[in-house]
Amino acid sequence: MSGDFAPIAAPPGEDLAGLGEVVRSFPAILETLRRSYAELEERAARVENELYHANRELARRVAELDVLKRHLEAVLESLPCGVVVRDGAGRVVRANGTALAILGVPADELIGRSDPAALRNVRSDGQERELHQDDGRRLVVAASCSRVRLANGRAEGSVEILDDRTERTALIEKLHAADKMAALGTMAGGIAHEIRNPLSAVRGFAGLLRESAGLSEQARRWTSLIVAGVDEADEIIQNMLSFGSPERLRLAPVDGTALLAEAVRLAVGEEGRTPAGTELTLNVQAAAPVFAGDQIKLRQAIRNLVANAATAQPDGGRIDVDLRLSGGDIVVTVSDAGPGIPAGERHRVLDPFYTTHADGTGLGLALVATIARLHGGDVEVSPRPSALGGAEIRLHIPYQPAVAPAPTTDSPNH
User: Fold this and answer.
1) What pLDDT, on the 0 to 100 scale, is given for residue 353?
2) How far is it, in rounded angstroms, from Cα 354 to Cα 394?
3) Rounded-to-integer distance, Cα 194 and Cα 236, Å
4) How confident is the model over 315-352, as pLDDT tens digits?
5) Is 342 exposed, middle or buried (0-12, 13-18, 19+ CB in 10 A)?
């Protein structure tokens, strides 16, 4: 049997009839296709127009959201308080620049961390606390925390607010210091006359006794000690008067070299010794033009700074005293090789009556600050150790050019 199959032929009449029917329906099919295509084109145009307007609206809303986002970011960065945002898991997701400045850390030490080291000492209870940064700065910060709640009331994360109250605290401290000075001035003015009269009598009679004939050497030493004690008491009274009721400045041309030489001589004597009698190494430099200032008061201030540096080194050491013109200020820097000033005490050493020395009065550095303020300047206690390893204190006063030639002779002792 063969594998090929012969086609079955259709009757000729039926083929012609079917073909004719197809040909006759072809225009109707074409018209239907044309109408369908036109409808599709119209619908595509409508969809394209709708998409165009929808895209424009979407782009407008995205632009509005972008503007709003940047505005909110600018507002967040402009806030004077620090803001730290946490998510629901407690991880930090945002911190503004103020928060980073208060905490003294870069953003990568906060973002994404649930327990960053910089926030471990921050308690969100609204109480003021001190934060000591690595560079020695002391900040007074009050922190508070609020939960972030969604529209449905569910809590989702939190916001911590860090309020830097350092400046306000400093102003309050200055106000208290002013009150202390006013009270001290009133007290000093009242007691100075009452105390100085008997002190003068004691000093006078002790001096007469010391010069009397036939006095034993031991008694002569005792009378010398009496005179020295009276002089020391009188100096304390004078410091109290100067601190509590400072006089007006008597501006005159000041030569830096002569000023430092006289101040150092008065502080540690000609031979440069500690209060205990141990020898000091002194390095005194002055590199500034003649300037206008109250020479007596400036000499007293520098003398107190040098004496304070000497007291900090009872076993001897080195003191560097430098005077120069820097940034529009006359800057006097006194550095020592002593133990330095602990971070917790730096902001207090200029307070009246605060002292770390058993025999100190707490008026020396406070008087330096008063003299600086009279000149329109200030005193800066460096947060870092000096180049010698100890404390470094800088006296700043605005530079004023001298209006007359500097005196050629040393100023009288005060």
Assistant:
1) 64
2) 19
3) 14
4) 888 999 999 998 899 999 999 988 888 777 777 777 66
5) exposed
Give the tokens for residue 275: 């209060």
The letter for the amino acid at 257 is T
Contact 182, 157 (CB under 8 A): no
Whether residue 234 contacts residue 199, with contact meaning beta carbons closer than 8 Å, is answered with yes
Q: Do the strands 128-132 and 138-149 form a parallel or antiparallel pair, or are they unpaired? A: antiparallel
Instruction: List, for the chain, all residue ranges whose pLDDT scores fall below the cut of 70.
Output: 1-17, 134-136, 181, 184-185, 188-189, 193, 239-247, 276-277, 351-362, 403-414
- Give residue 101's identity as a one-letter amino acid code: A
Give the separation between CA 118 and CA 133, rounded to whole angstroms.
10
| Alpha-carbon span 87 to 157, nearest angstrom | 4
Three-state secondary structure string covering the chain? CCCCCCCCCCCHHHHHHHHHHHHHHHHHHHHHHHHHHHHHHHHHHHHHHHHHHHHHHHHHHHHHHHHHHHHHHHHHHHCCCEEEEECCCCCEEEECHHHHHHHCCCHHHCCCCCCCHHHCCCCCCCCEEEEECCCCCEEEEEEEEEEEECCCCCEEEEEEEEEECHHHHHHHHHHHHHHHHHHHHHHHHHHHHHHHHHHHHHHHHHHHHHHCCCCCHHHHHHHHHHHHHHHHHHHHHHHHHHHHCCCCCCCEEECHHHHHHHHHHHHHCCCCECCCCCEEEEEEEEECCCEEECHHHHHHHHHHHHHHHHHCCCCCEEEEEEEEEECCEEEEEEEECCCCCCHHHCCCCCCCCCCCCCCCCCCHHHHHHHHHHHCCCEEEECCCCCCCCCCEEEEEEECCECCCCCCCCCCCCC
Amino acid at 185: G
Chain centroid offset of residue 159 CA: 24
Place of tokens 């809590």: 155
